[in-house]
Amino acid sequence: MLRSYLIRCIITLALPIASAHAAAAEISRVIITTFDQPAPRLMVTELVMKEIYKKLNIEMQLDKHPGNRALSLANGGKSDGELIRTTAIERTKSNLVRIPTPISQVRYSVYTKKAKAFEVKDWNSLKPYSIGVVSGIKFIEERSELFDSTVISNPQSLFKMLYLERVDVAVFTELDGLFMLKKLNLHNDIINLSPPLEVVPVYHYIHRKHTALIDQLSTLMQEMETSGELQALIRQSESMVIESLP
Hints:
CATH topology of the largest domain: D-Maltodextrin-Binding Protein, domain 2
Protein name: Transporter substrate-binding domain-containing protein
Family: Belongs to the bacterial solute-binding protein 3 family.
Structural class: alpha/beta
CATH architecture of the largest domain: 3-Layer(aba) Sandwich
Radius of gyration: 21 Å
Largest sheet: 9 strands, mixed
Signal peptide: 1-24
CATH class of the largest domain: Alpha Beta
Keywords: Signal
Strand content: 25-35%
Number of strands: 9
Protein backbone atom coordinates (compact mmCIF):
# COMPACT_ATOMS: atom_id res chain seq x y z
CA MET A 1 0.00 0.00 0.00
CA LEU A 2 2.77 2.42 0.97
CA ARG A 3 4.67 1.68 -2.22
CA SER A 4 1.57 2.30 -4.35
CA TYR A 5 0.90 5.56 -2.52
CA LEU A 6 4.48 6.77 -3.09
CA ILE A 7 4.31 5.89 -6.79
CA ARG A 8 1.07 7.84 -7.14
CA CYS A 9 2.64 10.85 -5.39
CA ILE A 10 5.68 10.76 -7.68
CA ILE A 11 3.48 10.59 -10.76
CA THR A 12 1.32 13.46 -9.51
CA LEU A 13 4.37 15.66 -8.82
CA ALA A 14 5.87 14.83 -12.20
CA LEU A 15 2.79 15.73 -14.21
CA PRO A 16 3.21 19.55 -14.05
CA ILE A 17 6.84 19.23 -15.15
CA ALA A 18 5.94 16.91 -17.99
CA SER A 19 3.10 19.21 -18.99
CA ALA A 20 5.41 22.23 -19.04
CA HIS A 21 7.89 20.47 -21.32
CA ALA A 22 5.06 19.29 -23.54
CA ALA A 23 3.68 22.83 -23.75
CA ALA A 24 7.10 24.16 -24.71
CA ALA A 25 7.48 21.47 -27.34
CA GLU A 26 4.09 22.36 -28.82
CA ILE A 27 4.97 26.04 -29.33
CA SER A 28 5.94 26.52 -32.96
CA ARG A 29 5.12 30.22 -33.26
CA VAL A 30 4.99 33.26 -30.97
CA ILE A 31 3.25 36.58 -31.58
CA ILE A 32 5.30 39.43 -30.15
CA THR A 33 4.00 42.99 -29.92
CA THR A 34 6.06 46.10 -30.55
CA PHE A 35 5.78 49.76 -31.61
CA ASP A 36 4.19 50.52 -34.98
CA GLN A 37 6.92 52.85 -36.18
CA PRO A 38 9.88 52.55 -38.55
CA ALA A 39 12.82 52.46 -36.14
CA PRO A 40 16.30 50.99 -36.73
CA ARG A 41 16.59 49.68 -33.15
CA LEU A 42 13.34 47.74 -33.54
CA MET A 43 14.55 46.38 -36.90
CA VAL A 44 17.82 45.22 -35.34
CA THR A 45 16.07 43.58 -32.39
CA GLU A 46 13.59 41.84 -34.70
CA LEU A 47 16.45 40.26 -36.65
CA VAL A 48 18.25 39.22 -33.47
CA MET A 49 15.23 37.71 -31.73
CA LYS A 50 14.08 35.87 -34.85
CA GLU A 51 17.45 34.11 -34.97
CA ILE A 52 17.27 33.28 -31.27
CA TYR A 53 13.77 31.83 -31.61
CA LYS A 54 14.90 29.87 -34.66
CA LYS A 55 17.39 28.05 -32.44
CA LEU A 56 14.38 26.86 -30.42
CA ASN A 57 12.53 25.88 -33.62
CA ILE A 58 10.01 28.65 -33.00
CA GLU A 59 8.82 31.21 -35.53
CA MET A 60 8.50 34.77 -34.25
CA GLN A 61 5.92 37.12 -35.75
CA LEU A 62 5.51 40.79 -34.86
CA ASP A 63 2.19 42.48 -34.10
CA LYS A 64 2.67 46.26 -34.31
CA HIS A 65 0.64 48.84 -32.39
CA PRO A 66 1.09 52.23 -30.69
CA GLY A 67 3.34 51.84 -27.66
CA ASN A 68 0.72 51.70 -24.89
CA ARG A 69 -1.60 49.46 -26.90
CA ALA A 70 1.23 47.01 -27.68
CA LEU A 71 2.12 46.84 -23.99
CA SER A 72 -1.49 46.28 -22.89
CA LEU A 73 -1.96 43.45 -25.39
CA ALA A 74 1.20 41.72 -24.19
CA ASN A 75 0.42 42.16 -20.50
CA GLY A 76 -3.13 40.92 -21.04
CA GLY A 77 -1.93 37.73 -22.73
CA LYS A 78 -3.36 38.69 -26.14
CA SER A 79 0.16 38.29 -27.48
CA ASP A 80 3.05 36.18 -26.21
CA GLY A 81 5.35 39.03 -25.22
CA GLU A 82 7.01 42.37 -26.00
CA LEU A 83 9.94 42.71 -28.38
CA ILE A 84 12.03 45.25 -26.49
CA ARG A 85 11.41 47.37 -23.38
CA THR A 86 13.18 48.92 -20.42
CA THR A 87 12.53 47.77 -16.86
CA ALA A 88 10.24 50.79 -16.40
CA ILE A 89 7.29 48.68 -17.57
CA GLU A 90 7.66 46.26 -14.65
CA ARG A 91 6.03 48.62 -12.16
CA THR A 92 2.66 48.39 -13.91
CA LYS A 93 2.81 45.33 -16.20
CA SER A 94 3.26 42.46 -13.76
CA ASN A 95 2.34 39.70 -16.23
CA LEU A 96 5.42 40.31 -18.35
CA VAL A 97 8.59 38.50 -17.34
CA ARG A 98 11.98 39.91 -18.29
CA ILE A 99 14.47 37.65 -20.04
CA PRO A 100 17.52 38.59 -17.91
CA THR A 101 20.12 39.04 -20.66
CA PRO A 102 19.91 42.55 -22.21
CA ILE A 103 19.16 42.51 -25.92
CA SER A 104 20.58 46.00 -26.48
CA GLN A 105 21.43 49.33 -24.91
CA VAL A 106 19.44 52.43 -25.78
CA ARG A 107 20.89 55.94 -25.73
CA TYR A 108 18.26 58.52 -24.78
CA SER A 109 19.19 61.87 -26.32
CA VAL A 110 18.03 65.48 -26.33
CA TYR A 111 17.12 67.07 -29.68
CA THR A 112 16.71 70.78 -30.39
CA LYS A 113 16.94 73.32 -33.21
CA LYS A 114 20.56 73.79 -34.26
CA ALA A 115 20.52 77.48 -33.38
CA LYS A 116 19.31 76.73 -29.84
CA ALA A 117 21.94 74.17 -28.79
CA PHE A 118 22.91 74.10 -25.12
CA GLU A 119 25.00 72.00 -22.75
CA VAL A 120 23.38 68.80 -21.47
CA LYS A 121 24.60 67.32 -18.19
CA ASP A 122 21.56 65.44 -16.92
CA TRP A 123 17.76 65.67 -16.80
CA ASN A 124 17.96 68.82 -14.67
CA SER A 125 19.52 70.56 -17.68
CA LEU A 126 16.05 70.47 -19.25
CA LYS A 127 14.23 72.37 -16.49
CA PRO A 128 14.17 75.72 -18.34
CA TYR A 129 12.65 74.15 -21.45
CA SER A 130 9.36 72.68 -22.67
CA ILE A 131 9.88 69.03 -23.55
CA GLY A 132 8.21 66.80 -26.13
CA VAL A 133 8.12 63.02 -25.58
CA VAL A 134 6.50 60.14 -27.45
CA SER A 135 3.52 58.34 -25.93
CA GLY A 136 4.20 54.75 -24.89
CA ILE A 137 7.95 55.06 -24.23
CA LYS A 138 7.55 54.50 -20.51
CA PHE A 139 11.12 55.30 -19.51
CA ILE A 140 11.00 58.79 -21.04
CA GLU A 141 7.42 59.45 -19.91
CA GLU A 142 8.33 58.71 -16.29
CA ARG A 143 11.56 60.70 -16.34
CA SER A 144 9.83 63.77 -17.79
CA GLU A 145 6.79 63.81 -15.46
CA LEU A 146 8.25 66.50 -13.19
CA PHE A 147 9.10 68.79 -16.10
CA ASP A 148 7.10 70.95 -18.51
CA SER A 149 6.44 68.03 -20.83
CA THR A 150 3.99 67.27 -23.63
CA VAL A 151 3.19 63.68 -24.63
CA ILE A 152 2.97 63.38 -28.42
CA SER A 153 1.46 60.48 -30.33
CA ASN A 154 4.38 59.48 -32.60
CA PRO A 155 7.99 60.38 -33.51
CA GLN A 156 7.01 62.12 -36.76
CA SER A 157 4.75 64.54 -34.90
CA LEU A 158 7.36 64.97 -32.16
CA PHE A 159 10.02 66.26 -34.55
CA LYS A 160 7.58 68.34 -36.58
CA MET A 161 6.45 70.08 -33.38
CA LEU A 162 10.10 70.66 -32.45
CA TYR A 163 10.79 72.12 -35.89
CA LEU A 164 7.77 74.43 -35.55
CA GLU A 165 9.00 75.36 -32.04
CA ARG A 166 5.84 74.14 -30.32
CA VAL A 167 8.28 72.53 -27.86
CA ASP A 168 11.84 73.61 -27.06
CA VAL A 169 13.42 70.16 -26.96
CA ALA A 170 12.52 66.56 -27.72
CA VAL A 171 13.75 63.50 -25.85
CA PHE A 172 13.99 60.36 -27.95
CA THR A 173 16.33 57.46 -28.67
CA GLU A 174 19.51 58.34 -30.54
CA LEU A 175 19.67 55.85 -33.42
CA ASP A 176 15.94 56.02 -34.16
CA GLY A 177 15.83 59.80 -33.79
CA LEU A 178 18.62 60.40 -36.29
CA PHE A 179 16.88 58.04 -38.71
CA MET A 180 13.57 59.89 -38.30
CA LEU A 181 15.19 63.30 -38.83
CA LYS A 182 16.73 62.12 -42.08
CA LYS A 183 13.43 60.62 -43.20
CA LEU A 184 11.63 63.93 -42.50
CA ASN A 185 14.48 65.92 -44.09
CA LEU A 186 14.98 67.83 -40.84
CA HIS A 187 18.54 66.64 -40.14
CA ASN A 188 20.00 70.01 -41.19
CA ASP A 189 17.76 71.95 -38.80
CA ILE A 190 17.58 69.71 -35.72
CA ILE A 191 20.52 68.13 -33.90
CA ASN A 192 20.95 65.70 -31.03
CA LEU A 193 23.01 67.01 -28.13
CA SER A 194 25.91 65.19 -26.48
CA PRO A 195 26.29 63.40 -24.20
CA PRO A 196 23.06 61.36 -24.11
CA LEU A 197 20.85 61.80 -21.05
CA GLU A 198 21.07 58.12 -20.17
CA VAL A 199 22.25 54.83 -21.62
CA VAL A 200 19.87 52.09 -20.55
CA PRO A 201 19.80 48.30 -21.11
CA VAL A 202 16.65 46.97 -22.77
CA TYR A 203 15.16 43.50 -22.60
CA HIS A 204 12.85 41.00 -24.27
CA TYR A 205 9.68 40.20 -22.28
CA ILE A 206 7.45 37.10 -22.32
CA HIS A 207 4.01 36.66 -20.75
CA ARG A 208 4.23 34.66 -17.55
CA LYS A 209 1.94 31.93 -18.94
CA HIS A 210 4.92 30.63 -20.96
CA THR A 211 6.98 29.35 -18.05
CA ALA A 212 8.96 26.78 -20.01
CA LEU A 213 9.67 29.23 -22.85
CA ILE A 214 10.93 31.84 -20.38
CA ASP A 215 13.38 29.27 -18.98
CA GLN A 216 14.51 28.21 -22.45
CA LEU A 217 15.08 31.77 -23.67
CA SER A 218 16.84 32.77 -20.44
CA THR A 219 19.26 29.83 -20.67
CA LEU A 220 19.90 30.20 -24.39
CA MET A 221 20.52 33.95 -24.33
CA GLN A 222 22.84 33.65 -21.32
CA GLU A 223 24.83 30.97 -23.14
CA MET A 224 24.99 33.14 -26.27
CA GLU A 225 26.16 36.15 -24.26
CA THR A 226 28.85 34.12 -22.49
CA SER A 227 30.18 32.72 -25.77
CA GLY A 228 30.08 36.10 -27.54
CA GLU A 229 27.58 34.82 -30.09
CA LEU A 230 24.88 37.26 -28.99
CA GLN A 231 27.09 40.33 -29.36
CA ALA A 232 28.24 39.11 -32.79
CA LEU A 233 24.61 38.60 -33.85
CA ILE A 234 23.67 42.10 -32.68
CA ARG A 235 26.61 43.67 -34.56
CA GLN A 236 25.76 41.73 -37.72
CA SER A 237 22.11 42.78 -37.49
CA GLU A 238 23.07 46.43 -36.92
CA SER A 239 25.25 46.37 -40.04
CA MET A 240 22.44 44.87 -42.11
CA VAL A 241 19.93 47.50 -40.94
CA ILE A 242 22.32 50.46 -41.39
CA GLU A 243 23.18 49.31 -44.92
CA SER A 244 19.48 49.05 -45.78
CA LEU A 245 18.61 52.58 -44.62
CA PRO A 246 17.99 55.22 -47.31
